[in-house]
Write a structure and sequence with these properties.
about 150 residues, mainly alpha, 7 helices, about 0% strand, elongated, Exosome-assoc_fac/DNA_repair, nucleus
């Protein structure tokens, strides 16, 4: 898949996009290597090593990646992917990715120990004793009561 300088005929396209094409070609090579690595492990074997939430994440990332690649394919064929059903599919997958993220975040969040929390709040609140209540009144309040 790797192209050499000799393979690229710069007369076929504007020279100002040459660097962009080289970067794109390197990106394609990188994607190809990642896919080969991912495909080298049987899916069943990979899933056995993952927790259910991780399995869902892998499925979603795989579906998103394939649909994204199809998006790029459509663009290379002169088809506007924004007007193609692949756009709705990507949005649907993104929605599920966000739901899985929420579940993972809730799972990571610390659990509230209701008993400990109520003891903490109960002990933090000050309750006046009857003798403190009498001495804590200000003279202004005492005068007002005498007037009533």
């Amino acid at each position: 898949m790797e192209m050499s300088e000799d393979d690229i005929n710069t007369e076929e396209y504007p020279t100002e996009i040459h660097d962009y094409l080289k970067t794109f070609e390197k990106s394609l090579s990188s994607v190809d290597e990642m896919l080969k690595t991912m495909m080298s492990v049987p899916r069943r074997e990979l899933f056995q090593k993952l927790e259910p939430l991780e399995q869902v994440k892998l499925d979603l990332v795989s579906a998103y990646t394939l649909n994204s690649m199809f998006w790029v394919y459509l663009a290379t064929q002169g088809i506007n992917p924004k007007e193609h059903p692949v756009k709705q599919e990507l949005e649907r997958i993104r929605t599920y990715m966000n739901k899985v993220k929420e579940i993972a975040d809730k799972k990571k969040a610390s659990k509230l120990d209701k008993g400990a929390a109520s003891r903490f709040v109960r002990n933090a609140l000050w309750e006046p004793s009857p003798e403190n209540e009498r001495t804590s009144k200000t003279p202004a309040k005492a005068k007002k009561r005498k007037m009533d």
